[in-house]
Design brief:
It contains six helices and seven strands. The protein is an alpha/beta fold and about 180 residues long.
């Protein structure tokens, strides 16, 4: 009986939301936008006006190392700068073995840095690597992109987050006195 009532409530809410979706403000879909913090931003800033994808990758998710070169190139082609860090807590010997197994070139390996301690707030509450976040200026989109994705889904996810950051920036600018 309880399950039936729950299903009816979900259906009713879904029907109402679908019928009224055009009257709902778009802000109900916006994520939490956080400031990066001066110390974190200074630790890695690209000094570019381009949006940035910050990627934390880990050999503990096998596909993150094999798919990272492709995803990096797709993000660059979509107009993003890419900053990539090793997942914290991975010992150097484990990282070296994984890079060797992934057959990265020395140039690819050189593109991966250690995650700055000043940015630890990004990953302290997370228990899943890899993940990526979209950054515009000094703002970071609050919804990480987990794991690896095909190019079309990856670039669409990046674009949606960038658009949300830009909308939040405009909204905040309009609220300023």
């Amino acid at each position: 009986m309880g399950v039936f009532v729950a299903v009816c409530i979900v259906c009713a809410v879904w029907t109402w939301r679908t019928a009224h979706s055009e009257t709902l403000p778009s802000s109900h879909l916006l994520p939490v936008v956080r400031g990066i913090g001066v110390d974190c931003h200074a630790a890695w800033s690209t000094l570019s006006s381009s949006p940035v994808v910050v990627m934390l990758i880990s050999p503990r998710m096998i596909y993150s190392l094999s798919e990272w070169p492709r995803m990096r190139l797709a993000a660059l082609a979509a107009g993003f700068d890419v900053v990539t860090w090793k997942a914290p807590g991975v010992p150097p010997h484990e990282w070296a073995q994984a890079v060797q197994a992934a057959r990265w070139t020395p140039m690819q390996s050189a593109l991966i840095g250690d995650a700055p301690a000043a940015c630890s707030a990004w990953w302290q509450s997370l228990n899943h690597f890899p993940f990526s976040v979209v950054v515009q200026g000094d703002q970071v989109h609050g919804w990480p992109i987990w794991g690896v994705l095909p190019d079309e889904a990856w670039t669409a996810s990046l674009a949606v987050r960038l658009e949300a950051l830009r909308e939040a920036s405009i909204r905040n600018h309009l609220k300023s006195p």
